[in-house]
Amino acid sequence: MTPQYTSSYGGDNPYRSSASSSSHHASSLGGHRDEMQELHAAPSGYISQSPFLPTLPSAPESLAGGHYMPSFESRDSLYKSASFDDERDSLYSRRDSDAWGLYDAQHEGARTSLALARERYISRKQAALAANDGVYDVTPPKPSRFTLKQKKWMVGVGSVVTAIVCAIVIFFATRNNTNATIVDPPSSSTSGTSKGGKPTAGAVASDPHDPSKFTKDPRLHRSMYGLCYTPFNAQYPGCGATQSNVTEDIQIMSQLTTRLRLYGADCDTSQLVLEAIKQTQVDMQVFLAVWVDDNAATFQRQVDEIVVALKKYGSDHVAGVTVGNEFLLNGGSVTTLLSHIQTVNTTVNALGLGKYIPIGTADAGSMVTLQLASGADYVMANVHPWFGGLPVDQAAGWVYEYTNTNAPSTALTAPNKPTLYVAEAGWPTGANETRLETYQAATAGVAELNTFLASFVCQSNANVTQSNLQPSFIFEAFDEPWKDALYGGVEAHWGLFDANKKLKDGIIIPDCASP
Predict the structure, then answer these.
(1) Residue 6 carries which DSSP code?
(2) What EC number(s) has UniProt assigned to this enzyme (predicted)?
(3) How does residue 496 score in pLDDT terms, banded at 50, 70 and 90?
(4) Fewer CB atoms inside 10 Å of the end CB: C or N, the chain?
(5) pLDDT tier at 98 (50, 70, 90 boundaries)?
């Protein structure tokens, strides 16, 4: 997928969606590496005291001396980094100084073929520069075949021809659709993908004239409090998301949950989702979102998108508006974020929608503070046991204990009593490289995701019903292949469904009632 934003790091920031976020909208150019925290010993039996079933360590050698859980009280790496910059460079590598995989992990000090190839390339480049006395070719250019007047004439003719071709393309592309960029009509096609220009993945058997009539998948159960979701091809400025594709997504996800969490408003995301709910007539509430970075134009553009969507569709299916995702984790200031939250609150709730729309924010659990919570109607904490290097059979208990006894719990002491959500909880099923499918005692896989779902989903629902604690959003609905090129590792592989909207082989959805 195409990148989303240009950041101060000098590269493009796409929306991301995974853990610290494995958010949909990009949290940082480092993926989840900023969330890797130092492990501290906790009292033995700590997890067994939680409302989740007691578990046994699946990797005892990594847990010597008692149960281990990330404290998130420091930003120290799990690796013994010499500096913060070294930590950022390490990512999932076993060597802090080997972020590019230049050393052979099996033979200490040995260089990999990648490293040797890179060195050969540099040597050839240096030799070429030496032979040419520099990087520039100073050979006098050959005389042009055309005079300056002829060149100007050709440029003018080319511009006219280009304009005519564009006009013809636009005419035929829009003559049968008065609003093709936002809402296209339900299509009779049931195959193909958005990248191929076809409307859907053909994952749902549906009445082409009435999207509310679709075949339910018996493997799916509406057992999840909420799901994290970003439409395919909704990365600004590419914006290739289509209504029919989003409508198909809503048909699928409505069989799993009644709540969705979005990450941004670009590419008409808010309108596409609300229109899909309207077309399918499903029971669904949505937390719309405003992506926040250090660009004021980005913020205003998305606020404007939210306003347009609310004016058009109203607030019946809107549960709230989340301002920012891991803005603080990426170096933003609390003061700036609180100002944005207040701006959105004033703007949205001045629309006269007939009800108050809660305005909140989402960030890594370690970034939640009393100051932040005091300025928001709700706080969403991204909490991922994978990045603590925990064995999966301890993951559910850790999410509960960490959220209720560490930084996120400070939100519950704020005088305005904001709601505290677990914004992202999940487990990856793979990685872009086999060596990255394990991290400390954590192993990616379908079996491991099943373990997490079985131990977390229904017990989490019970906690909400019985104690109003930790309503949680599962991260995430679909795999996001665009993250492989940008982040690598497990970032693209958190979906219950693959990128073609097929339930991953072997996935078992828990069967219990969601709150």
Answers:
(1) E
(2) 3.2.1.39
(3) very high
(4) C
(5) very low
Instruction: Verify whether residue 108 is a known catalytic residue.
Output: no
CATH number for the domain spanning 393: value is: 3.20.20.80
Active-site residue, from 35, 305, 326, 437: 326
Angle at 499 between CA 458 and CA 267, to 5 degrees: 100
Active-site annotation holder among 35, 305, 424, 437: 424
Task: Return the axis-axis angle of helices 395-405 and 446-467, rounded to nearest 10°.
Answer: 40
What total of structural domains would you count in the chain?
Answer: 1
Average pLDDT over residues 415-435: 97
**Which position has the higher pLDDT, 478 or 2?**
478
User: CA dihedral defined by 60, 66, 68, 72, rounded to 10 degrees?
Assistant: -170
Please check the confidence at residue 9 and state whether its pLDDT lies above 80: no
Within-domain flag for 167: no
Q: DSSP label at 217?
A: P
* CA–CA separation, 353 and 368 (whole Å): 30
Vertex 15 angle, CA 10 and 21, to 5° = 105
pTM (predicted TM-score): 0.67
Tell me if residue 475 falls in helix, strand or coil: coil
Specify if 147 maps to a domain: no
Q: Which helix (H) or strand (E) holds 195?
A: none
Q: Work out the pLDDT band at 509, boundaries 50, 70, 90.
A: very high
Does residue 277 fall inside a structural domain?
Answer: yes
- Rounded CA-CA distance 384/297 in Å is 31
Using an 8 Å Cβ cutoff, are 62 and 89 in contact?
Answer: no
Longest dimension (CA), the chain: 85
Q: What is the per-residue pLDDT for 497?
A: 98
How many Cβ atoms from other residues are within 10 Å of residue 113's Cβ? 8
3 state DSSP class of 132: coil
496 contact partners, CB below 8 Å, separation of at least 6: 256, 449, 474, 476, 477, 478, 503, 504, 507, 509
Residue 472 domain boundaries = 206-486
Write down the pLDDT at residue 270.
98
61 is catalytic: no
Least Cα distance to 69 among 51, 90, 46 occurs for: 46
Can you count the helices (H) and strands (E) in the chain?
Answer: 11, 18
Q: Please report whether residue 313 resides in a domain.
A: yes
